[in-house]
Amino acid sequence: MITLSTLKKYKKEGRKFSCLTCYDAMFAKMMQNAQVDTILVGDSLGMVVQGNDSTLPVTVEDIVYHTGNVSRSNKHALILADLPFMSYVTVEDAIANTRKVMQAGAQVIKLEGGAELSEMVTTLTKAGAPICVHLGLTPQSVNVFGGYKVQGKSDDAAAKLMSDVHAVVAAGASLILLECVPASLAKAVTEAVDVPVIGIGAGADTDGQVLVMHDMLGVTHGRTARFVHDFLTDERNQKSEYAGSVEGAFALFHNSVIEGSYPQAEHQFN
Ligand code: KIV
């Protein structure tokens, strides 16, 4: 069973770790068989499960439902879950909603933001809820950003992100997740903090890598982001003992992250 202590130990040893989003029991069981280290019950479910254009319509009840599905059938991975849009504007809301999501089986709560979350992070952590802070491209703020754009590109934006990371780690954050930031910035953040850093579209140097499950299975409409690789149709999966199965795609992702063959330079932003 993977815990936060396991991930901290992995960081010290330089052993990378895998993370996939998951929303239901069958895929959660396959991820257990494939030894995927961590699972994120992400509010991306609003898009890939519910068919919305963004994560904004997702509710706390949706996250509770999907977290229960996942946690009942995977006893190996550390389970992270999102608090969705507008469900943690006040510390009081954050406490009430964290309670519901952790009682459904989440072991870490993910919040999107920066230094402004510091008080909330301290309060929740002291109350027994480890927090992962998601920075960079934070999809709940898509309307503030004006689209899904790479973040932290200018010197000022990079310095602000680094200062936000230091603030939330000082406040007690247990994990950092960086989405769509230049690889050099993600590397600098990963080296600057003791807590494990998970990346998506953040280059090869973060401690962990996460992908949305549907994306890495090639189950998508239209254009995919440059950091996505289809592990299902990958020749190595087709030729493996898993004979091209979904479980094989999960195992190939996990092994590729650990051995450092995913992500490649073509998957990163500079
Ligand atoms: O909700 C989600 O799936 C996420 C990942 C994109 C990191 O936040």
Please tell me about this protein's structure.
The chain is an alpha/beta fold and 270 residues long. It has a single domain, classed as TIM Barrel (Alpha-Beta Barrel), CATH 3.20.20. It has 12 helices and 8 strands. The chain has helices at 4-13, 25-33, 45-48, 60-73, 91-103, 118-126, 142-145, 155-170, 183-192, 213-216, 235-238, 246-259; strands at 17-21, 38-41, 78-82, 108-112, 131-136, 175-179, 197-200, 208-211. Strands 1-2-3-4-5-6-7-8 form an 8-stranded parallel beta barrel, surrounded by 7 helices. β4 (108-112), α6 (118-126) and β5 (131-136) form a beta-alpha-beta unit. α2 (25-33) packs across α4, α2 (25-33) crosses α12 and α8 runs parallel beside α9. The model has no long low-confidence stretch (mean pLDDT 98). Residues 21, 40, 42-44, 82, 134, 177, 179, 200, 210, 212 line the site of 3-methyl-2-oxobutanoic acid.
Physical arrangement of strands within the biggest beta sheet: 1-2-3-4-5-6-7-8
What oligomeric assembly is this protein in?
single chain
Could you give me the name of the CATH homologous superfamily? Phosphoenolpyruvate-binding domains
Bound small molecules, by name, code or SMILES, are: 3-methyl-2-oxobutanoic acid
Structural class by helix and strand composition: alpha/beta
As for the CATH topology, it is: TIM Barrel
Q: Give the helix tally.
A: 12
If classified by CATH, what would the architecture be? Alpha-Beta Barrel
Largest sheet: 8 strands, parallel, barrel
- What spatial form do the alpha-carbon principal axes imply? globular
Helix content: 40-55%
Order of helices and strands: HEHEHHEHEHEHHEHEEHHH
